[in-house]
Amino acid sequence: MLDDHISHLIDLIPKDRSSFDIQRLFFLLTLDSATHFLFGESVGCMLPPSETTGVLERSAVGSAQGFAEAFGTAQDYLAARSRAQGLYWLINPKEFREANRRVHEVVDHYVNVALESKRNPEKKNADGRYIFLEALAAETDDPKMLRDNMLNILLAGRDTTASLLSSTFFYLSRHPSVWNRLRREIIEHFGDAKSSKVEMTQTKLKDIPYLRYVLNEGR
Length: 219
What we know:
- The protein is mostly helical.
- The chain is 67% helix and 0% strand.
């Protein structure tokens, strides 16, 4: 799963060595990987529009990028509402309500798919992959509760990971010795473009001590 998402991220990096905002790409990466784990399929924010799922095209978001934009807009307003504390209800413009509606429509689709799989076990994913939403649906049939839980985890999974990656790359760019050692460690475990590759998984990444050290320092 991670290999595909990382490949899509690399494809978005300019090949002419021009400057770009890597944090924006990290937010797309973490949204894709988080939805893949939670929903069973990625929304495909880093893919060309022609390769994204038809579910998004048929929804109000219109595309994976539309989902990412609506999610970001809703989050910006939620941050403003949290700062307003008891007066949060004053911040409720049409743009915020519309963004919420679009995000809810997409998440509700996956919730309905999970509930349908629960009612009809033969429709579950054939490869037996663990899907968080299906596991959560085994505990409740309340679609709103499922949607709220998915959005809470999606928010945490996207923002914290993207922020960690951004700060880590910021420091790596200023410490080439650390970058070079980390690169050697990664190649030793997974290979490079010229050697046979080992599938990159979260479990295998956790088995690289130096990677953990670097991420801990980047927090």
